[in-house]
Design a protein that fits this description.
Keywords: Isomerase. The structure is a single chain. The protein has about 400 residues and is α+β, with helices and mostly antiparallel strands. About 30% of the residues lie in helices and about 30% in strands. The chain has one domain: Anthranilate synthase (4-Layer Sandwich), CATH 3.60.120. The longest helix is centred in the C-terminal third of the chain and has 19 residues. The structure holds the ligand C=C(O[C@H]1C=CC=C(C(=O)O)[C@@H]1O)C(=O)O.
Length: about 400
């Protein structure tokens, strides 16, 4: 099928009969491979055939489509995969791999366990950006802008850079076993010998496209979960009936529906959100489903038409982007961008790049943000980002970094 020895690419639309078992793909994963897993499909890729480094400002979707079609003509059907950053003018990290294998279904924990690194990663120091107080101050500043009518919602984030060595295959396996329904990814970013991977377990689907069918599943409005089942259920119900969170959520759903509408002959938008849970969070969730006018439209092009949604940026977009630039004080990089893949027909799946960490040789940086709207409280937003950070910190065995007294942070 393909001219490159060892290259294997199984078409997405031929997945159902007898695909490679997802668990065996996970077992085959090696450091510097790339893996993207959802409840629908799992993609395992190795090597780089061609990079597509344009920024979203520079016709990224068109450049990607040309690269996919050229590869399909010359070599065979291979997907494009990788990550697009939050900022439209920053370069994407997308490429066509030398080898790609798709499997249907979830990468549940395989029979064969990898040996755990012993001891668990040890953290030699933490650099928060901003500090806890800095984050609360930025939320207060965003609330002033909201009161002044300059913006309705701003998503503010923070990061924790930890001096620690973390094994990517080990982390990936732990993330998959904790939340197999999520969008779990390990995107190899190693270039020129500088080892780096973007690893995460996102609960949020930006866009899935298969034939003429598209689905987006925006999340916004959240509350941390607790161990006690009765209180946990009470929190979920409280979230569902919170006017503040419903408003925060509606801004995202309206923007997603407005961005998809011009591309769709039919669009279904539920009138009210439902609840979605991860191991650490409850979220308000809405599944927006559409039928495309042009089934040949690419999943990347459609995902970029949605990005950045108010779930990661705010509303209105331009005012929220300006507030983030002025208040956040650090570069988000790939965090709050999109991560996923597209095949030569444009079918594909792109998740919102959240609940993630940049894993480098001697350090790991975890990220989390929260939507600020009228009625938000600085301490509650800080606590929400801590709970979101736990997705990665718990999986890495580094949750103790959240217990550091603020004066030491
Ligand atoms: C920006 C993040 O979450 C977004 C997605 C879901 C819920 C969110 C919220 O309730 O604020 C955020 O909009 C993150 O997890 O870092």
């Amino acid at each position: 099928m393909n001219a490159i020895p060892g290259t294997l690419s199984v078409p997405y639309d031929s997945l159902t009969p007898s695909p490679p078992r997802a668990t065996s793909l996970l077992r085959a994963y090696r450091r510097h491979d790339t893996l993207f897993s959802s409840s629908q499909v799992q993609l395992h890729a190795r090597g780089v055939l061609e990079t597509v480094d344009a920024s979203a400002c520079d016709g990224l979707a068109e450049t990607a489509r040309e690269a996919l079609q050229r590869t399909a003509r010359k070599i065979g059907r291979l997907p494009l995969l990788g990550a697009v950053p939050f900022a439209a003018d920053a370069p994407a990290r997308l490429w066509i791999p030398r080898q790609a294998v798709f499997a249907a279904g979830q990468a549940r924990h395989g029979g064969e366990r990898r040996s755990l690194p012993v001891p668990l990663p040890h953290c030699d120091g933490v650099l928060p950006q901003p500090t806890a107080q800095g984050y609360r101050d930025s939320v207060s500043a965003a609330l002033q802008r909201i009161d002044a009518g300059r913006v309705a919602k701003v998503v503010l984030s923070r990061s924790l850079r930890m001096q620690a060595r973390v094994s990517v295959p080990w982390l990936l396996e732990r993330l998959l076993s904790r939340h197999p329904d999520g969008y779990t990814y390990a995107i190899d970013l190693t270039r020129n010998g500088d080892s780096a991977s973007l690893v995460g377990s996102s609960p949020e689907l930006l866009l899935r496209k298969r034939g003429a069918q598209v689905l987006s599943n925006p999340l916004a409005g959240s509350i941390p979960r607790v161990a006690d089942p009765a209180e946990d259920a009470q929190r979920a119900q409280g979230l569902l009936s919170s006017a503040k969170d419903r408003h925060e959520h509606a801004l995202v759903v309206d923007a997603v529906a407005a961005a998809l509408a011009p591309h769709c002959r039919k669009l279904q938008v539920p009138a009210a959100p439902s609840l979605l849970s991860t191991p650490t969070m409850w979220h308000l969730s809405t599944r927006v489903e559409g039928e495309l006018l042009d089934p040949a439209a690419s999943s990347l092009q459609l995902a970029l038409a949605l990005h950045p949604t108010p779930a990661v940026c705010g509303y209105p977009t331009v005012a929220a982007q300006a507030a983030i630039r002025e208040l956040e004080g650090y570069d988000r990089g790939l965090f709050t961008g999109l991560v996923g893949w597209s095949d030569p027909e444009g079918d594909g799946e792109w998740a919102v790049t959240i609940r993630c960490a940049l894993v480098e040789a001697d350090a790991v940086t975890a990220y989390a943000g929260a939507g600020v709207v009228r009625g938000s409280q600085p301490q509650a937003e800080l606590d929400e980002t801590s709970a979101k950070l736990r997705t990665m910190l718990n999986a890495m065995g580094l949750a103790q970094v959240l217990d550091v007294p603020e004066s030491a942070a």
